[in-house]
């Protein structure tokens, strides 16, 4: 047990850093653009470069973990992330900062691509849900801490310190990882990592993200058409090649497992709804309800804060209750909270807003740990890396689509875009609940099944 705790702490540090850095720069963009003398629109690349780097390499790193070992990929990602943080802190121009953020994104992709696989190795099979609950708590805490930490640092130091604080934490995480993370030898000897497939994967997901962003921001239809055409051509050849691979980067072999594919679909729906709500709510609370920025930030903390409490409990409940039932119940509660937020009275009380946000967060927390547990456990042990990568990809795909859909609503329905977004978010959560409940008719993965039989 002591060694397991140190190992999970090593994973928590790495995951926490990657999540915090996805949001920590947002607060500082006005300051960075002013001090570097760049237009505000150009400063967005500081955020987008990081997210794009993660998206285009995530599945490739998970496949690399299957081929060379998850511990190696995780430690390599931590090293890359820490070195890139030094580059970010020393950057004196936009190009060098963006390049450092791209490298930092590669490191974050390596860390997040295998983190849930490492949890599968660290925890006994019967206690996998507990590990997933801790992981969900770390993500929730990091999501809350990002903007708050950024505001605290900027109040006493210049913006480079936003990235410099990663360095000591990264070094500690590296030390813990090298000492306590378990060795996991490659289960299938002779498996090769195909760099050509990794390049095709990056190009496909890069074109997909560019097309979604371009459409949502009203890009010139001619340019957008060229991008979509390129996506269709590249995607066709990539998918066709992956269908014939024994161990594909795009894991069609895992998607053929019914409970795995249903869990992925449920995850996409949940994160799409969550991101729609998280982008819409600040505008809704400030423009429609009259709260200022600080009050809005404090109110929205209720959502991830309750996840910190519910997620570990849900991780233990999955040992006794079917994950499909927990997920369906949780997403139904989340959908109810979102729909109640969409129909707030004209002059809502603070308590009235908070309890609705708590309902959303509790529902999402009840869903997340069981869903992650059943998704990871349903994959064969030698494909754990690809399962972990697919879990992270489903999250990013849902978040990216949700943010783009919100941008599109701002263009299509400027007068009531936020309420429409909350209604759509509730609809996606309810769809996820229905999909999750279909898992009740599917056989559970062996590990979870044995635990339930043992309990009975």
Give the key terms.
80% helix, 20 helices, single chain, mainly alpha, Growth Hormone, Chain: A, 3 domains, 456 residues
Describe the model:
The protein is mainly alpha-helical and 456 residues long. It has 3 domains: 1-182, MFS general substrate transporter like domains (Growth Hormone, Chain: A, Up-down Bundle); 195-244; 249-456, Growth Hormone, Chain: A (Up-down Bundle), CATH 1.20.1250.20. It is built from 20 helices and no strands. α4 runs antiparallel to α18. The protein is globular. The model is unreliable at 450-456 (pLDDT under 50).
- Globally, the shape reads globular
Share of helical residues: over 70%
CATH architecture of the largest domain: Up-down Bundle
User: Could you give me the name of the CATH homologous superfamily of the largest domain?
Assistant: MFS general substrate transporter like domains
Return the string of H and E elements.
HHHHHHHHHHHHHHHHHHHH
The CATH topology name of the largest domain reads Growth Hormone, Chain: A
How far from one another are the termini? 26 Å
C-alpha-based Rg, rounded: 21 Å
Number of strands: 0
SS strand fraction: under 5%
Quickly describe the structure:
With about 450 residues, the protein is mainly α. The chain has helices spanning about 1-20, 30-35, 40-45, 45-70, 70-90, 95-120, 130-155, 160-165, 165-180, 195-215, 220-245, 250-255, 260-290, 295-300, 300-315, 325-340, 350-375, 385-410, 415-435, 445-455.
């Amino acid at each position: 047990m002591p060694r397991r705790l140190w190992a999970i702490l090593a994973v928590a540090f790495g995951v926490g850093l990657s999540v915090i850095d996805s949001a920590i720069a947002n607060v500082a963009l006005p300051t960075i653009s002013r001090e570097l003398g760049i237009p505000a629109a150009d400063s967005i690349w500081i955020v987008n470069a990081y997210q794009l780097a993660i998206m285009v390499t995530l599945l490739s790193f998970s496949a690399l973990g299957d081929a060379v070992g998850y511990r190696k990929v995780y430690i390599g990602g931590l090293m890359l992330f820490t070195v890139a943080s030094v580059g970010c802190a020393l950057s004196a121009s936009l190009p060098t900062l963006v390049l450092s953020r791209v490298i930092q994104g590669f490191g974050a992709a390596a860390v997040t691509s295998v983190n849930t696989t490492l949890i599968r190795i660290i925890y006994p099979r019967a206690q996998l849900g507990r590990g997933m609950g801790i992981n969900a708590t770390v993500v929730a805490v990091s999501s809350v801490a990002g903007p708050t930490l950024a505001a605290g640092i900027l109040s006493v130091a210049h913006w480079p310190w936003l990235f410099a604080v990663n360095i000591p934490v990264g070094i500690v995480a590296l030390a813990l990882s090298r000492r306590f993370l378990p060795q996991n030898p490659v289960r299938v000897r002779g498996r090769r990592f195909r760099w050509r497939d990794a390049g095709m994967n990056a190009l496909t997901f890069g074109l997909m993200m560019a097309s979604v962003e371009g459409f949502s921001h009203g890009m010139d239809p001619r340019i957008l058409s060229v991008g979509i055409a390129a996506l269709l051509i590249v995607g066709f050849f990539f998918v066709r090649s992956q269908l014939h691979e024994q161990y594909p980067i795009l894991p069609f072999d895992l998607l053929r497992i019914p409970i795995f594919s249903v869990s992925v679909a449920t995850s996409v729906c949940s994160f799409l709804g969550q991101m729609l709500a998280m982008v819409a709510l600040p505008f809704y609370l400030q423009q429609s309800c009259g709260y200022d920025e600080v009050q809005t930030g404090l109110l929205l903390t209720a959502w991830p804060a309750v996840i910190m409490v519910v997620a570990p409990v849900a991780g233990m409940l999955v040992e006794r209750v079917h994950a499909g039932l927990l997920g369906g119940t949780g997403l139904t509660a989340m959908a109810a909270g979102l729909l109640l937020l969409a129909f707030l009275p004209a002059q809502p009380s603070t308590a009235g807003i908070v309890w609705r946000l708590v309902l959303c967060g509790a529902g999402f927390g009840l869903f997340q740990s069981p869903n992650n547990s059943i998704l990871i456990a349903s994959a064969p042990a030698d494909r754990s890396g690809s399962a972990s990568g697919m879990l992270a990809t489903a999250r990013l795909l849902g978040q990216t689509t949700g943010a783009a859909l919100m941008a599109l609503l701002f263009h299509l329905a400027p007068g009531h875009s936020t309420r429409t977004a909350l209604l759509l978010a509730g609809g996606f959560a309810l769809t996820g609940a229905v999909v999750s409940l279909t898992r009740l008719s599917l056989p559970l993965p062996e590990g979870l099944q044995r635990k339930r039989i043992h309990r009975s």
